[in-house]
Each structure stands twice: as structure tokens, then as C-alpha cells.
Amino acid sequence: MDNGNKHIGIGFRKDFAEEFLEKKILKPVFVEVAPENWMGIGGYWKNIFDKVAEQYPVYMHGLSLSIGSPDPIDWNFLRKVKNFLKTYDIKIYSEHLSYAKCDNAHLYDLLPVPFRWDAVHHVSKRIREVQDFLERKIAIENVSYYTPVAAEMTEAEFINAVVAEADCNLLLDVNNIYVNAFNHKYNAEKFLDQLPLDRVEYIHMAGHEQVEPDLIIDTHGEPIIIPVYELFEYTVNKLPKNVPVLLERDFNIPELAELQHEMSLMENICRRAWNHEYAVA
Hints:
Blueprint: E1 8-11, H1 17-23, E2 31-33, H2 35-38, H3 43-55, E3 58-61, H4 75-87, E4 93-96, E5 98-102, E6 105-112, H5 117-134, E7 139-141, H6 155-166, E8 169-173, H7 174-184, H8 188-193, E9 200-205, E10 209-212, E11 215-217, H9 226-238, E12 245-247, H10 256-274
Parallel strand pairs: 1-2, 1-12, 2-3, 3-4, 4-7, 7-8, 8-9, 9-12
Antiparallel strand pairs: 5-6, 10-11
């Protein structure tokens, strides 16, 4: 399908599912879904999802694997994930470098894993077990966080150690880097330079909300701001290979033409960096 975009995908949401299929305003090269929202469904929504999967490659970004949790891995959940991956021939499965369950309670938030060596070993072991079960590598996303917990290394050192020990890929969330750099007062470009960029499987881009002069919250509910586009351009020029890029918008969904405009801006940046050509807006 030649739809203008070569690199940019969209997070598929039920909020705009019908308009997405009917009007073709959005022109992604792939779509990404959370498996928790689509596994095991039937009826109307399964029909919608099947139509999308027939037209676009599907990537999967999980919310509840809780790779950093002290609780045992939910193998029943993973069996469903593995079946979903095979059913829809999903090429990329990613999760967050965080935890969302503790003492069998779902916290309904993505909490940071302490930047410690014992946490590196714990998380890496669990990632390897998941990868062995799924018979594929997964990509782990750098997350936004608002206070470090009992840290004995930097965030960059922690990410590098987990990716190396787990032998997994990295989902690079550029907005999360910008948010953390602003909140914790470090240089985003220098941080990015320290990451294992050869392990980046794909990129997330999103908006955020500044709620205080010194505090940004990662919301995925606002347009992407210019400094995040600038950090994105710095990022794609640093990568050793071309990778897919996803636009995330979870709520406050605007007109689809506005989302397509953001996708076109990112496509232009990618083509300047990787192909030395320009996208048509």
C-alpha cells in the first residue's frame, strides 16, 4: 500500500475506528494496538479489528505484563498474547520497562523500576523468560517517571544494562525522554547519546501537558510540541538504521486531519534524515 507515509504509524483507538476505516483521512504505514483492548473480543469490534488487520500491518504495545513486578509472570495472559501474535502475524510486541502489579493487585499505573543492579537482574531474567515463551524478542520502552526510587545508577545505565542482559530490543519513546529531561533537569540529547541506539526497534512520539513551571506530565492527550519534534529529529539522525515511528494519542482526540498533519511532520523529518527526500503533507 503506497499511502504517502513510509515510516509513520498510528495508535489505533476505538474512538476513531469507524472514521478511520471509512474516510481514509489517516494514512499510516502500520497501526499499533494494546492487546488487552482487543484479545478475546467478538462481534462488532472483532469485525472492525479484522478489517484494520487486513489493510495494515499490526504492532502490539502491551500495558499489563508488568515486567518489573515482584509477582510471578502471568503465563495465562502470555498464552493469549502468543496466540494473538500468531493469529494476526504481528511483527513487533513491546512493553514498558515498569511495573503495574504488586501483591496480585493491579495498580492501573506504570510505575518505574528502581535503577539498581538487583532490579536489572530481576527484570532481565523475566524478559528472557517471556522471550523464550513467545519465541521472539520483545522491545522494552523507556518510561516517564517523576521521582527516582533508591537509585544506585543512572537511568541510561539502567536501560543499557537491562537491554544487554536480557538481549532484548528497545522501544525508544522520545517524548518520555523530553519529559524526564525537563522534570529532572538533564540534557535530553546527551541522555539519548548514552542509549543503545543499535537496539532501537521503533519509536514512539506523543504529546504531554505542562502542569507547573517545573513539571510536565506525560499524558498522550495533547499535540506534540516543537521541542519534542526537534529532539525527534536529533534522534533519527543518530540511529544506525531506519525504524518505524508511532504517533500516540490516547484521549482528547482531535480531527483526524490534525493527527495526519502530525504524522506528515514526522515523515518529513524521517525522510530528510534517512532518504534525503520530502514527504507530501
